TrEMBL record, chain A:
Transmembrane segments: 20-40, 52-75, 96-121, 127-149, 156-175, 204-225
Pfam families to which the protein is assigned, alphabetical: ABC2_membrane_2 (PF12679)
Source species, domain of life: Bacteria
Taxonomic source organism: Phytohabitans maris
Keywords: Membrane, Transmembrane, Transmembrane helix
Protein name: ABC transporter permease subunit
Keyword Transmembrane helix: yes
From TrEMBL, chain B:
SUPFAM superfamilies: P-loop containing nucleoside triphosphate hydrolases
Domain ABC transporter positions: 4-230
Source superkingdom: Bacteria
Name of this chain's protein: ABC transporter ATP-binding protein
High-level lineage: Bacteria, Bacillati, Actinomycetota, Actinomycetes, Micromonosporales
């Protein structure tokens, strides 16, 4: 009963906030561009990379995971309602895990459907499924990361954006070593290995992608649980 | 019956000491935690509620530490100062969620009982976002009471309540205290503490300045003059007689009666009836005019 209750109140909070509306246009953009490209008969080699990877995996997935992942816990910390959840005799993993599940589910549903549609339009159902499945893995890993960030810093959205835009987006293109710590690269590799089409260029090996995804997901979840255990409310300093 | 104990507790933030070597034990009944803004009341409450680690010392409820120990919330309820409640829920939903998270056997009944306790049944199906400040506060109190905790901690609980709600809340705290719950509420408003509880813990600048029954604390500070307003059948003659008393440090007389300053509470109150009897004066009224918590408090702050 406890996990469902936490999940229910988390989902209610998430969908009740206005910033949830931000989730809608981005996936639509991916599908829209794919439909247009296909409609105008552009060769998939010319649009698959920028739309599927450049927009879908590099922007839409992490940004939506960021909005949702920081929303499930970060918003409650911001407005102070987290105190109502924490003053219950619950081991902290029973709070973190349902929130992680909600974040992952919402991100996956939002992102993977559009990736699936765009993948089918670009090549085949197999590519669509590959992207959708990789999107699921990516949603889980990013959600764990951003959920933990909500407990590590007061500015999780800012820090998350720096990770996505600067680390993955910028450094990932120029400094090859950073790719080992890039969720985007894991997702790309997983999609590419499920559906080897030549449209996606993966840069890390599959074992690295799988092992690092697992380490990220488990590591940041454990970190989040531990940080929530020591959650402090600062006293009034006035 | 539960006790909350602080033993040699200090809390600092960098170089700033917020709470300095505080030792206190809260027993069943209502205790007021009193102090000016910034004295460290909220820090003490947060440490008691397990939301802040003491830098030094131990904070326990019935011997169990509160920090990193969610099990204490079975016995503990907290009403924090921040008003935040899940606005998108109705009061009933909010309380049912609380009850479920406490794993209560019958969450609906527990929610209903808590709503009745704070008289919120009338608005229970409206969203909390539409409530007035006082209604939100009562909803939060109900949330902290849903599992019938042995210990209830409230940070500035009367803020934003109108006088009727305030009175009702005071009665509720009284009732819970009388029923054997350990209640601590913080306040910087003296009348509140005075009306709800006789026992106070006074915190000034992070230190425990006084502890116990506030009237007793007042009497202990015998070096401060105590002021009494006296009405009698012959104020002027009584004034003359009182001036002969060693314990009296000053007498003022005006149309309203006598204002007497006494250096020592005990000997003055013992001497007055004898003097009146000897002079054949009938004392109609004797009011310790500075017995309010306000004066206790300002003495402590000055000291």
């Amino acid at each position: 009963m406890v996990p469902q209750t936490i999940a229910w109140i988390t989902a209610r909070g998430l969908f009740g906030r206005r910033r949830f509306l931000l989730l809608i246009p981005l996936p639509l953009l991916v599908v829209g561009l794919a439909v247009l490209s296909r409609g105008f008969g552009v060769a998939p080699e010319n649009w698959a990379q920028p739309v599927l990877v450049g927009l879908g995996l590099a922007v839409v997935l992490p940004v939506i995971a960021l909005i949702v992942g920081t929303g499930v816990l970060g918003s409650e910390i911001d407005d102070g309602t987290i105190v109502h959840i924490l003053t219950k005799p619950l081991p902290r993993w029973q709070i973190v895990l349902p929130k992680l599940v909600v974040a992952t589910a919402v991100t996956t549903v939002t992102v993977s459907i559009s990736l699936y549609v765009a993948g089918v339009l670009a090549h085949s159902v197999r590519l669509g499924l590959g992207l959708a499945l990789a999107g699921l893995v990516g949603s889980l890993v990013y959600s764990a990361l951003f959920l933990a960030m909500s407990l590590l810093t007061r500015r999780p959205v800012l820090l998350g954006l720096v990770y996505v835009l600067v680390w993955e987006g910028l450094l990932g293109n120029f400094v090859s070593g950073t790719r080992v710590l890039s969720v985007q690269q894991y997702v790309l590799t997983i999609a590419d290995k499920i559906a080897p089409t030549g449209l996606l260029q993966s840069k890390v090996s599959l074992p690295v992608a799988i092992i690092m995804s697992a380490i990220f997901a488990v590591g940041f979840t454990v970190l989040a649980i531990d940080r929530l255990r020591s959650f402090s409310v600062a006293g009034e300093t006035s | 019956m539960s006790d909350v104990s602080l033993l040699g507790v200090s809390r600092w933030y960098g170089n700033v000491v917020a709470v300095n070597d505080v030792t206190m034990t809260l027993r069943p009944g209502v205790t007021g935690l009193l102090g000016p803004n910034g004295a460290g009341k909220t820090t003490v409450l947060h440490m008691m509620a397990g939301f802040l680690a003491p830098s030094r010392g131990t904070v326990t409820i019935d011997g169990e530490p509160t920090w990193r120990n969610p099990a204490v919330y079975k016995r503990l309820g907290l009403v924090s100062e921040r008003e935040a409640v899940h606005d998108f829920l109705t009061a009933r939903e909010f309380l049912q969620v609380s009850a479920r998270l406490h794993r209560l056997p019958d969450p609906e009944a527990a929610a209903q009982r808590a709503l009745e306790l704070v008289e919120m049944t009338g608005a229970q199906d409206r969203r909390i976002g539409t409530y007035s400040k006082g209604m939100r506060q009562r909803t939060r109190v109900a949330g902290a009471l849903v599992h019938d905790p042995q210990v209830l901690l409230l940070d500035e609980p009367f803020n934003g309540m109108d006088p009727r709600q305030r009175l009702h809340m005071m009665e509720l705290l009284h009732r819970l205290g009388t029923a054997g719950r350990t209640i601590l509420f913080s306040s910087h408003i003296l009348e509140e503490v005075e009306q709800v509880s006789g026992t106070v813990q006074v915190i000034v600048a992070g230190r425990l300045a006084a502890s116990g029954d506030y009237r007793a604390i007042r009497r202990l500070m015998s070096n401060r003059p105590h002021v009494f307003a006296i009405h009698s059948t012959d104020d002027r003659r009584l004034a003359v007689a009182l001036m002969g008393q060693g314990s009296v440090t000053g007498v003022e007389i005006d149309r309203a009666g006598l204002t007497v300053r006494a250096g020592d509470y005990g000997s003055f109150t013992r001497a007055l009836p004898k003097i009146a009897l000897a002079e054949g004066i009938r004392v109609r009224q004797l009011l310790p005019s500075d017995e309010s918590l306000e004066s206790v408090f300002s003495y402590l702050v000055e000291a």
